[in-house]
Automatic annotation (TrEMBL):
Signal in keyword set: yes
Organism: Lacibacter sediminis
Protein name: DUF4835 family protein
Pfam families, A to Z: DUF4835
Xref: InterPro entries: DUF4835
Keywords in alphabetical order: Signal
Residues making up the signal peptide according to the UniProt record: 1-19
Domain of life per record: Bacteria
Length: 306
């Protein structure tokens, strides 16, 4: 083969291998599925979804290996109705590195209880963002949900590095919501489902101009706060505190907003460790705010920070 062609192929393959954004690990928990079902199908599902997430490009940018977004997807199979039709929950976890440290900060830690899909072993993982719903909605729902969360993960990662940087990806997630597969067993895509706690409402909160302060919250918390911990811990805490104040104000103006609770998921230990060294007055202020924002962990904040 001509040396020039070899060089071109090498460069192309190097570019392609570094292009993808996600370093995802997918695990399928099948304990609740009858033992008469061959477990090989679930291992094949894990491998197929991992390939789908990691080998597909979700943005126009090229990510180097060390820039890829580390994330975990846990699919807990909770039942099986018709052959190859499963009811499940899906938990999405993603983190991003903190500048000049070995620490990674959680950016998503969310459990979605509404994941029904159909999977036949070795079926191709097809997804077309311009034609999301195929001939079988339950088959389409598998890749639609995975693609939706891929865009959400990428969006929040961009959001944490540049102000409103996630908007193009949240718009793509909204496109999936608007064109989602529709069938009686499928839920999580509609405004009237799940008490305003589903894929529709997460995207609505991110796109709605009334809640634009949430983008400032993410950017300030990570880029202006956490990324300066090594350089100026007190200054970093101040920026994190400002983010929490913005979030608290939003929560007071619009109580029970999904995006507020979404932000707080998985943050308790990080915030406690961050404010343990704060002056007493600062601790008192942050405990008051966190007790309103994260009611589930309010006692934990009071015990650890007072």
């Amino acid at each position: 083969m001509h040396k020039g062609l070899l060089l071109f192929l090498f460069c192309f393959l190097s570019w392609f291998s570094n292009a993808q954004e996600l370093n995802a690990r997918v695990r399928v928990v099948d304990n609740q599925i009858p033992t008469t079902i061959d477990r090989k199908i679930f291992r094949t599902l894990e491998a197929s979804l991992t390939t789908f997430l990691n080998n597909r490009r979700w943005s126009a940018d090229n990510f180097k290996q060390n820039e890829k977004i580390n994330c975990q997807i846990l699919i807990n199979l909770e039942g099986m109705g018709e052959p190859n039709v499963f009811s499940a929950s899906i938990t999405i976890q993603a983190a991003r590195p903190v500048y000049s440290t070995s620490y990674v900060s959680p950016i998503i830690n969310f459990k979605d209880p509404n994941f029904d899909f159909k999977y036949i072993e070795s079926q191709p993982m097809e997804f077309n963002e311009n034609r999301i719903s195929g001939s079988d909605p339950l088959v389409s729902n598998l890749t639609a949900v995975m693609a939706y969360y891929a865009y959400i993960i990428v969006g929040f990662d961009y959001e944490s590095f540049s102000l409103r940087g996630g908007n193009p990806y949240f718009q793509k997630a909204l496109n999936i919501v608007n064109n989602a597969p529709d069938a009686s067993k499928i839920s999580g895509w509609k405004s009237f489902e799940n008490n305003n706690r589903n894929r529709y409402w997460l995207t609505e909160n991110l796109i709605n101009n009334r809640y634009t302060v949430i983008h400032d919250v993410y950017y300030n918390y990570y880029r202006k706060g956490m990324d300066y911990l090594y350089e100026n811990e007190a200054g970093a805490r101040t920026e994190v505190m400002n983010s929490l104040v913005y979030l608290d104000n939003l929560n007071r103006e619009t109580p029970n907003l999904m995006i507020v609770q979404f932000f707080m998921l998985g943050k308790a230990d990080e915030l406690i460790n961050l404010f343990k060294k704060a002056p007493p007055q600062e601790k008192t202020k942050v405990v008051d705010i966190l007790s309103r924002l994260d009611v589930t962990n309010s006692n934990k904040y009071k015990q650890e920070l007072r």
